[in-house]
Automatic annotation (TrEMBL):
Superkingdom of this protein's organism: Bacteria
Entries under InterPro entries matching the protein: SAM-dependent_MTases_sf, TrmK
Protein name per the record: SAM-dependent methyltransferase
Coiled-coil region: none
Biological process, per Gene Ontology: methylation
Gene3D superfamilies listed in its UniProt record: 1.10.287.1890, Vaccinia Virus protein VP39
Amino acid sequence: MNAQKLSKRLEAVAKFIPSGATIADIGSDHAYLPCYLVHKGIVLHAIAGEVVKGPYESAVKQVQKEGLAAKITVRLADGLAAIEPTDHVDTVAIAGMGGPLIVAILEKHPEKLQGVTRLILQPNIHAKVIREWALAHNWAILDEEILEEDDKIYEIVVLQRGQMELSDAEILVGPRLSQRQSPTFIKKWQREKENWQRVLHAIEEAEQTPEIEEKRAELTALIHLVEGVL
C-alpha cells in the first residue's frame, strides 16, 4: 500500500469521500488516504491528524515526498483537536481502530464537528457502538459497507446529520448491510453466531451463578437477533 494504491479497506473508505470535500483524516498514520484523495483530484485540501509522534513524522515525510505540503496539513494532536475552525473541514474519516475508540474520539472534542456534514467511520471491531452513538447524537446512516481483506472482515459506517430509528438487530448488524445480505455479511454473522453458541454451550457446564445467568441471557438474545436477520 502507498499513496497511489490504497489497501482494499482504505479504497472502500475513499469512495465515500464527496468530491470537493475538505477532509480531516484522524489517525492518518502515513497519510496515505489524504495523499491518495488529493492525487485523484477528489479533494483539494486535507488535514492529517496523528496523536503519536512516530506516525506523525511518517505522515509529514510522506506528504513532503508526494509534493503535497501545500494541500495537506499534518498535525500532531489528540483526535479531533487536529481540526481548526479555519480549515473549514466538512468531512471526517476515522479508520483502522476499534469502535469504542472511534466513539471516544468523537465525544472528546464535539465542538470540532460543528461544520462537519459527513463522517466515514471504519471500525475494526464493534461497529455496534458507532450506530448507538449516531442514534444518540442526531446522526443518520447514509450508507454502510462490509468487506474482507487479509482474512479480516471490516465494516464502514457513513453518517450524515439527521435522525433515524433502528431496531436492536439493525444496531447490531447494520440496516444497509442486513438489507443487502452480501456473502461477507453472512460469513461474519454466521461466524459470530457459532462463537456465541460455543460459549453458551461451555457455560452450561459451569456453576450457575447470577453472572452466568446474565451471560446466558445476553448470548441467547444475540443469537436470536442474528437468526432473525440471516
